[in-house]
């Protein structure tokens, strides 16, 4: 059986049997070992090169302070990537797989039917206690439905390095902590159902 067909079947099953039910039941889910070590390393090396070459700029705040960089509120450095840029083949492969996963969710996402995505945001927290205070990705209904985050941190120890993504599910009495470990893909609703924060990082994240 062709590899592409196996991948299609696997992604479709993951979407329908795991991603969709989790989003509806608890509002988020994650997949570990998504790309595998070899391809994940290719993505990591490209992002490291962007960081090393100074291609990342301070993240900006949306809302009333739109376009303003305030390091005490948001400490990441970012770059928007389409995936077709030179040297971004591994990133493009990752984006293609994520696109397929979301496509297979189809009309099963409640009132949402995702037809397109924004560019991908490459983000790096440079350590020194930088994080991102509690916020909502899409507080104003701008069309964003699902946030997908792919983590690239090898040998990450959250007790030592911090950097946990903490989700505060709307109407729930608990919080959910997601460690930013290598080759983990996270999905969650982008709207007010999932306020979240990036806790201070004490290593490059």
Question: Could you list some keywords that capture this structure?
Answer:
iron, Jelly Rolls, hypoxia-inducible factor-proline dioxygenase activity, dioxygenase, globular, Pro_4_hyd_alph, 4-stranded antiparallel sheet, 205 residues, 10 strands, single chain, alpha+beta, hypoxia-inducible factor-proline dioxygenase
How would you describe this protein?
- With 205 residues, the protein is an alpha+beta fold.
- It has a single domain (2-198), classed as q2cbj1_9rhob like domain (Jelly Rolls, Sandwich).
- Helices cover 29% and strands 21% of the residues.
- Helix 1 (3-25) crosses helix 3 (89-105) and helix 2 (37-52) crosses helix 3 (89-105).
- The radius of gyration is 17 Å and the shape is globular.
- InterPro entries: HIF_prolyl_hydroxylases, Oxoglu/Fe-dep_dioxygenase_dom, Pro_4_hyd_alph, Pro_4_hyd_alph_FE2OG_OXY.
- It comes from Neodrepanis coruscans (wattled asity).
- One of its GO terms (biological process) is cellular response to hypoxia.
């Amino acid at each position: 059986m062709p590899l592409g067909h196996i991948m299609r079947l696997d992604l479709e099953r993951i979407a329908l049997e795991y991603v969709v039910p989790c989003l509806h039941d608890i509002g988020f889910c994650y997949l570990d070992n998504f790309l595998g070590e070899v391809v994940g390393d290719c993505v990591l090396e490209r992002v490291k090169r962007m960081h090393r070459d100074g291609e990342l700029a301070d993240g900006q705040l949306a809302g009333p302070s739109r376009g303003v960089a305030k390091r005490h509120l948001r400490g990441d450095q970012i770059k928007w990537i389409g995936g077709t840029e030179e040297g971004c083949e591994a990133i493009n492969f990752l984006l293609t797989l994520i696109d397929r996963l979301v496509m297979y969710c189809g009309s099963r996402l409640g009132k949402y039917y995702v037809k397109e995505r924004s560019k991908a945001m490459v983000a790096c927290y440079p350590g020194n206690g930088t994080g991102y205070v509690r916020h909502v990705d899409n507080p104003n209904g701008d069309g964003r439905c699902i946030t997908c985050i792919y983590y690239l941190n090898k040998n990450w120890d959250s007790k030592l390095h911090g950097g946990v993504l903490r989700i505060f599910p709307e109407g729930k009495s608990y919080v959910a902590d997601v460690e930013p470990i290598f080759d983990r893909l996270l999905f969650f609703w982008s709207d007010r159902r999932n306020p979240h924060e990036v806790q201070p990082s004490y290593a490059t994240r």
